[in-house]
Amino acid sequence: xxxxxxxxxxxxxxxxxxxxxxxxxxxxxxxxxxxxxxxxxxxxxxxxxxxxxxxxxxxxxxxxxxxxxxxxxxxxxxxxxxxxxxxxxxxxxxxxxxxxxxxxxxxxxxxxxxxxxxxxxxxxxxxxxxxxxxxxxxxxxxxxxxxxxxxxxxxxxxxxxxxxxxxxxxxxxxxxxxxxxxxxxxxxxxxxxxxxxxxxxxxxxxxxxxxxxxxxxxxxxxxxxxxxxxxxxxxxxxxxxxxxxxxxxxxxxxxxxxxxxxxxxxxxxxxxxxxxxxxxxxxxxxxxxxxxxxxxxxxxxxxxxxxxxxxxxxxxxxxxxxxxxxxxxxxxxxxxxxxxx
Length: 341
What we know:
alpha/beta, Rossmann fold, 2 domains, four-stranded parallel sheet, 14 strands, 34% helix, globular
């Protein structure tokens, strides 16, 4: 019998939309993977944006009032300084503020006076109309996708569908930059992260060949475990680590995906074989629980004292990437030096 998803794993997929830029829905088609480009001369309008549904959307002028129906995409828009005036919100939880915005960018949303619309799953067309948007952004997949309401949204303003399930944060930033006229900011953000990663790699001096595992630990449930093909792995490789892949036989995912595998509690000892283990969205209490778990006592990272808590969220956008880099710059105690000792 296939194991039942724990509360943590369910929240990971639905409540916090927190699997990098992937959803727990269907895998995009090859056509959708190639979509998301604009035909235009930089700085000139109107422009035509081909979105993830392969539809060519004419955007008549640089947007000044953007409504995001996807809370997972809002952070990426804010990082581009795109004029987001309102956004759907996530259910209340450890990863969100009182408005339902993800904590890694909630302060930015507050400073820019972004209005919280409705909680995902409670779509409100009238709320969107009242905002008088000149561009509406919709997620192609995931718990915050409003594709079923696309026809109604298109009657209000140009509406683009963007798939965050098949892109890392940099690719997503480029795509949204084309649609919103913030291409230069997208390039600046990518350069800022890449430059910081390169600097930190030199400072950390992680020994060549050091392996790492990154997961959201669920005691006695199913734990999402970062794959070597995902965006978290890309970031960690830049810092000098090699991400360990999960053998397919231990992955309980029902859909092909490139970012996270879902591993049952009983299979964690066979999959967490890396030199260092990083726990996502973790604190001292959850890290202590992991280290104290008798079933995991023989893990190489537990034995060597190389288990580390990352307060950073699962959803990897520009802001979350900066949080992870902040940790390595200011708080990382070094390998074989657990923060709990």
